Amino acid sequence: MDGKSDSSALYTISAVFEMLRKHLCDNLIGTLLAIFGNFLVSISLSIQKYSHVTLAGRKDQRTFYHTKTWWCGFVFTCIGESANFVSYAFAPLAVVAPLNAVSVLTSSILGFLFLHEKSKPKEFAKHYGLIILGYFITAGGTYLFVSFGPNSHEKLEAENIVKHIVGWPVLLYLLLEIILFCLLLYFHKQRRVNYLVVILLLVALLGSVTVITVKAVSGMLVLSIEGNIQLDNPIFSVMFVCMMASVIFQARFLSQACKLHDSSLVMSVNYILSTVFAVVAGAVFYLEFNKEEVLNICMYVLGSVLCFLGVFLMTKNRKKPKIFEPYVSMDMSNGSFIRLDFI
Question: Cellular location of this protein (predicted)?
C-alpha cells in the first residue's frame, strides 16, 4: 500500500508540473517562484527578528524558540527558500540571480514601515528621498532584466550537465576561478588583507560555484519528480556535495565581512559582485546568452545596472533604527541561505 501511495503521489506532483507547463512557460514559473521566495523570506525573517527584539530584555534568550511568532517566521523561511531553490530548475541563472534585489527592496520597505517616525517634509526628503528613489530604480531595473533576460532553458539531465562540465569554456572558467580564489585567499589569510572587496570577491567566487550546482541539483530533482529519475547518477552526488561545501565556506567569509565592515555596505557590494559572477557563470556553464540578440543583452545589462544602483541608494543613507529593523535576505546564490542582519 505504501509503495502504491508513494507512486500515486509522485504521479500527482508530475501531473501538476505538466499542467503548469502547458499554461505557463518555464521562465515565467521560475521568475514568479524566485520573486515569491525572496518576498516571503524577507517577511519571515522580519517576523523572527521581531520575536528576538520583543524578548531582548529577558535573561534566557532561548525562550524565542517557544514563541509562535518565531516558528511562524521559520516556516515561512523554509517555504521561501524552497521556492528559491526550485526556481533555478525553471529559469536561467541570469534571471533568477538579480531577483535578490526583491528581497532587499522588501526588507527596506518593511524597515521603513516599522520605524514609525514622525518628521517634517524636509527632514523626510533628506533622510528617505534617496531610499525611495532606490525603490523605483530597482523596480524599473527588475522589469527590464526580467523582460529582456535570456529565454533559453534546457532540461538539466545528468548527461547534459556532464557535457557542460567537460567543455573547454567551463574548464577554462573554473581554472581561472580557482587561480583567482587561491590568490585572494593567500592575501587574505597570509598577508592579513581584510579589504571588503577582497573578502566579498571570495564570497562571489564561491557563489558562482553555488549557483551552478544549485541549478543542477534543483533541475535533476524536478526531473526525478516528473518521472525521469536522475538521482542515481554520480554527477548528482558530486553537485550536491559541491553545493553544500560552497554554501558553508561562503557563509564563513560573509560572516567575516559583516564583522569587519558596515553591514549596509556589505549588502550592496555583495549583491553586485555575487550577481555579476552568477550571471557570468550561467553564461559560461549553461550558455544562457548564446541565442540572444544584442539589443536584448544591452537592455538586460541596463536593467541589472539599474538594480545595482537602486540597491546602493537603498543602503547608502540607511538610518539605524532604535528598536527594530528586519533581517535583509541576501541570496548567496544568489539562492542560497545566507542572511545579513542590519542593526
Answer: Membrane
Residue 127 CA to residue 242 CA, distance in Å, equals 43
Q: Which residues contact 63 (CB under 8 A, 6 or more apart)?
A: 55
Q: Residues 69-93: what's their mean pLDDT? A: 88
- At 330 the three-state DSSP class reads strand
Q: How far apart are CA 7 and CA 4, in angstroms?
A: 5
C-alpha cell at 151: 529565454
Q: What per-residue confidence (pLDDT) applies to 325?
A: 43
DSSP state of 340: E
User: 331 in the Ramachandran plot: left (φ > 0), alpha (ψ -120 to 50) or beta?
Assistant: beta
> Which pLDDT does position 227 carry in this prediction?
85
Q: How many CB atoms lie within 10 A of CB 216?
A: 28
Joined grid coordinates for residue 207:
557563489
Cell matching residue 247: 554554501
Burial group, residue 291, by CB count within 10 angstroms (0-12, 13-18, 19+): exposed
* 120 contact partners, CB below 8 Å, separation of at least 6: none
For all residues of the chain together, what is the average pLDDT? 81
Please say whether the beta carbons of 241 and 210 come within 8 A. no
Query: Which parts of the chain are beta strand (E)?
Result: 328-330, 338-340
Name, in order, each residue with C-beta under 8 angstroms of 275's C-beta and a sequence gap of 6 or more. 97, 98, 100, 304, 307, 308, 334
pTM (2 decimals)? Answer: 0.81
The angle that helices 121-148 and 294-316 make with each other, rounded to 10 degrees, is 150
What number of other Cβ atoms are within 10 A of residue 119's Cβ? Answer: 12
List, for residues 156-204, the tens digit of each pLDDT value: 889 989 988 988 989 999 999 999 999 999 999 998 899 999 999 999 9
Q: What is the pLDDT of residue 88?
A: 92
Given a cut of 50, is residue 12 above it in pLDDT? yes
DSSP bridge partners of 140: none
Bridge partners (DSSP) of residue 340 are 328
Which residues are registered as beta bridge partners of 338? 330
Chain center to CA of 186: 27
